[in-house]
Amino acid sequence: MAEFTGERVIPGEVNVDLLNEHVARYIFAARLARGKRVLDAGCGAGYGSAELAHSAQFVVGADLAPEAVGYARAHYRMPNLAFEQASCVALPHADAGFDLVVAFEVIEHLENWRELLREAHRLLAADGQFVVSTPNKLYYSESRGPEGTNPFHEHEFTFEEFRGELASVFPHVSLFLENHVEGVAFQPHEAGQAVEVRVDAGEPAPDESHFFVAVCAHRPQPASPVFVYVPRAANLLRERERHIALLDRELATKNEWLEKARHDLAQLDRAHRALNEELRRSNRWAEQLNQQVGTLGARVEEVQDELVREQEKARQMAEAYEVKIAELEQDVRDKAQWARDTDARLQQHIQDLVAAVEALHGTEKELEERTAWALRLRDEAGELAQQLALYRASRWVKLGRKVGLGPTSPAG
Q: CB of 207 within 8 A of CB of 136?
């Protein structure tokens, strides 16, 4: 579903006066569309294209917004009506392909709006007409008041600017001033009666007009009469009464909102005063805290100075410790070397002792052997002494000595 943004009119979603204001332009152009090939550039929701299709040979509605084209296709179906998604400044149609091109409330939305005029000039047949409308910049700015510039509009026109730009592209331009005017209608109860309209004469006032509508062509055009569109829902007083009732309801709602806003404001004011008191207490606490912070800051500076002094002492002590450690390490290295030297001497001494013990063992063994040998010799000597004694004591030996016979003893 297409969304009403204030710039795209959708029947049933806007008030009747606004809808009639837009429909009136299509009713105006429908008089020029009888039996013709028509293009509705910037067709929006499609209701205007459908109005033109009632009298035209065929109508093509073109719009850049896909949601608008989708809405138009869903709500307006006629055998001589088609909708397409296309840009108004680059339409996919051949030159001179249309007898009537309309572009209502489109040109002010385009950044490159001059391209729309050139594109309409290209698409028109030799005897074709281009009907274009735009809001009056002076009136529109005044009516919007404090709301400021319309955010959907790229460029708005004064009367003279609009006429000048159209005349630079089309050799023949007829301008109309569209106004939503007040009137009084006398409608017969019986249907089918002729319509008579009287429009009081008066000087046209472009600067005070609501909208500008131009009919542009390649060839001269016949003079156009004043055209008045009286919509079916044209009981202006009834519409005003309904509008006033709606405004009254809105005003009552706004009054309720205002009363609630006043109540909320009173509560906010009380809360604001309480907040201010709390803020004052917080400020006093903050001042005390600042004083404490100042005192603590001074103490921090003192502690920092003490820390610097202690760090210097620690540095000096560390340097002394490093010197002492270096001395101890050297002493340890010296003692370790002494221990290694002593161990080497002890090992050598042990080896010498082992060799001496082994020599002693050898000497003891030799002594034992010699002692055993000496004992054997002693024993042998004793035996020899006994034998010698026996020998000497023998009478045979004695007899032999006398006669000079027998062995001679060593002792003898």
A: yes
* Cα distances (angstroms) measured from residue 91 to each of 63, 84, 98, 114, 370: 10, 10, 12, 14, 147
Domain 16-184+198-233 has what CATH class? alpha beta
> What's the pTM?
0.58
**Domain assignments of the chain as residue spans, ordered by start:** 16-184+198-233
Cβ contacts of 371-375, under 8 Å, gap ≥ 24: none
Q: Of 230, 178, 177, 226, whose CA–CA distance to 200 is shortest?
A: 226
- pLDDT range class, residue 182, cuts 50, 70, 90: confident
Query: E-strand spans in 147-188?
Result: 172-178
pLDDT for the residue numbered 166: 97
Torsion from C-alpha of 317, 318, 324, 328, nearest 10 degrees: 150
- pLDDT at position 286 over 70: yes
Share of residues in the chain with pLDDT > 70 (%): 87
Q: Are 37 and 93 in contact (CB under 8 A)?
A: no
How would you classify the pairing of strands 81-85 and 98-104? unpaired
Q: How far is CA 152 from CA 5, 7, 62, 89, in A?
A: 10, 7, 19, 17
How far separated are the first and last CA of the chain, in Å rounded?
172
Query: For residue 407, what are its two tokens?
Result: 């062995």
What residue ranges in 157-222 does DSSP mark as E strands?
172-178, 211-217
> What's the pLDDT tens digit per position in 229-285?
777 655 555 666 666 776 677 778 888 888 888 888 888 888 888 888 888 888 888
Query: Which residues, listed in sequence order, are joined to residue 135 by a DSSP beta bridge?
Result: 211
Cα separation of 85 and 101, whole Å? Answer: 16
Find where tokens 């004591």 sit.
393
Q: Are 134 and 207 in contact (CB under 8 A)?
A: no
Q: Which residue has the higher pLDDT, 110 or 192?
A: 110
CA pair distance 62, 120, nearest whole angstrom = 13
Strand-strand pairing, 37-41 and 98-104: parallel
And the tokens for 227? 């055209």
Three-state SS for 84? strand
Q: Flag whether pLDDT at 3 surpasses 50.
A: no
